[in-house]
C-alpha cells in the first residue's frame, strides 16, 4: 500500500488487489495480537487507505481492484470469481478452500477454513467510547467504504 508507484514502475504489468477490513475490527485485532493503540491504528488505517486510493487513481487506473474483507469471508466464491475476472484467470471452486492454516495469530490461528463470522467482533468486544473515538478518526473513510452501524453519527 505504501509503495504503489515504485511497484508499478518495477512491475508495469502488475495488477493490485486491495482488501479493506472494517477499521473497528482492524483496531481490535491489532490490540489483541500486538497490544497496539486502537486510536493510532485507526489513524494509520485511514491514512494508508487514503494514500493507497490516491496512488491507485494516479498510477494504477484499471489495474487496481478494491474489496471489503467482510464481503470476501461472507461469500468467498462470488468475490473470488470477481477477483479472477479482474486478473484474467478462470475461477475454480478449490480456490475457496484452505489447504493449510493461513494465520499464526488471532482468532483465525490454526484454522483451515474461511471464518465467515470473523467480522463485527468490535460490537461485542469494544467499549462504546472506544468505538466512538475510532469512528471519529476514520468516519469519512468508513463512509466511503460503506461500513454501516456507526455508533458515531457525525
Describe this structure in words.
With about 150 residues, the chain is mostly helical. It is built from seven helices and two strands. It has a two-stranded parallel ribbon. It is globular, with a radius of gyration of 17 Å. The mean pLDDT is about 90.
- What's the quaternary structure here? single chain
> Which fold does the CATH topology refer to?
Rossmann fold
**Spatial strand arrangement across the major sheet:** 1-2
SS strand fraction: 5-15%
Q: Termini separation (Å)?
A: 28 Å
CATH C-level class: Alpha Beta
- CATH superfamily label: P-loop containing nucleotide triphosphate hydrolases
Task: Please identify the structural class as seen in this structure.
Answer: mainly alpha
SS element count, helices = 7
Order of helices and strands: HEHHEHHHH
- The general outline is globular
Helix percent band: 40-55%
Regions with little confidence, pLDDT below 50 for 5+ residues: none
**CA radius of gyration:** 17 Å
Biggest β-sheet, characterized?
2 strands, parallel
Named CATH architecture = 3-Layer(aba) Sandwich
- Structural domains: how many: 1
Which keywords apply here?
154 residues; two-stranded parallel ribbon; mainly alpha; 7 helices; Rossmann fold
Amino acid at each position: 500500500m505504501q509503495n504503489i508507484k515504485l511497484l508499478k514502475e518495477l512491475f508495469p504489468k502488475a495488477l493490485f488487489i486491495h482488501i479493506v477490513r472494517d477499521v473497528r475490527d482492524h483496531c481490535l485485532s491489532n490490540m489483541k495480537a500486538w497490544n497496539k493503540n486502537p486510536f493510532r491504528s485507526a489513524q494509520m488505517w485511514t491514512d494508508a487507505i487514503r494514500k493507497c486510493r490516491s496512488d491507485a487513481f494516479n498510477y494504477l487506473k484499471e489495474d487496481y481492484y478494491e474489496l471489503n474483507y467482510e464481503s470476501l469471508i461472507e461469500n468467498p466464491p462470488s468475490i473470488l470469481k470477481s477477483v479472477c475476472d479482474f486478473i484474467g484467470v478462470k475461477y475454480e471452486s478449490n480456490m475457496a478452500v484452505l489447504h493449510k492454516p493461513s494465520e499464526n495469530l488471532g482468532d483465525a490461528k490454526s484454522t483451515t477454513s474461511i471464518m465467515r463470522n470473523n467480522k463485527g467482533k468490535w460490537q461485542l468486544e469494544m467499549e462504546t467510547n472506544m468505538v466512538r473515538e475510532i469512528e471519529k478518526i476514520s468516519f469519512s473513510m468508513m463512509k466511503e467504504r460503506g461500513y454501516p452501524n456507526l455508533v458515531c453519527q457525525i
